[in-house]
Amino acid sequence: MLKAGVLGAGHLGKIHLRLLNQSEKYELVGFYDPNEKNAQKVAKEFGYKSFGSIEELIDAVDVVDIVTPTLSHYDCALKAISKKKHIFIEKPIANSVEEAYEIIKLAKEYGVKGQVGHVERFNPAFLSVKDKIENPMFIETHRLAEFNPRGTDVPVVLDLMIHDIDIILRVVNSKVKSINASGVSVISNSPDIANARIEFENGCVANLTASRISLKNMRKSRFFQRDAYISIDFLEKKVEVVKMKDAPKNPDEFALILQNAEGLKKQIYFENPKVSINNAILDELETFAKAIQNNTDPVVTLEHGTEALKVAHDIINSF
Q1: What is the reported pTM?
Q2: How many angstroms separate the CA atoms of 103 and 291, rounded?
Q3: Which domains does the chain have, with CATH numbers?
Q4: Taking a C-beta distance cutoff of 8 angstroms, is the pair 306, 172 a contact?
């Protein structure tokens, strides 16, 4: 078992602590939180060991799980890497692309592995259809959330939209050609609502919308490709796959047939992929343990996290 420690015992940090504690792949050593009052409360309530400093925690573990505010990701990562500790770092990987590149460089230099917490890659709905997404040419995503003060230290693009950016970059096999975006600050000092149009060199267009002041929560993505439409509800863990094929000469009387102006007939049919419910955060942590033990690449590499961060900053810069 790998000895693991968590930096940050806020809302998400406590979830990581609980899951690492129950995982069969890790031995939870403890945590560090700079807020002494909160650290004492978490230690007393859950029985986890609270360390007096970051350095003490890092020295006691094999894997450092960084669940701190984005602004401190870089410093925490450097301290862990310099002690040759593997790092799991929550998204976004860092506050700036330059910091992210430095993290990648040092991880290679010290021979440690790193994974970024883009948890939607482990969402069961996405996992059930990711192999069916082939060369999409139009993508539309909506990630809407009710207002929560947590996370408003960064623009909504880095808080919410970056999840969809990461997914899109993994399913579109092409480089970004251009980005047009707009953002509006309503409650925070940084944009709370954003829309971005990303054009890729292969012709694919992605239209992304994110809001953290919505009246309801929504996390949906729709992928349009030749002869198929795939819808993923990341929140409800549901998928919809609609496909088309050339209509048979003698279709079933209940078959849904479309005919275009040229007389070409297509049959529409539905697929219902099985969605196997999982704990996405536990899965991402445990696949990282496997990558360390088997010396393989993590599912979400530091490079992946940096690519998503770069596009996110390009969107912010185009406001």
Answers
A1: 0.93
A2: 18
A3: 2-119+280-301 (3.40.50.720), 121-277+312-317 (3.30.360.10)
A4: no
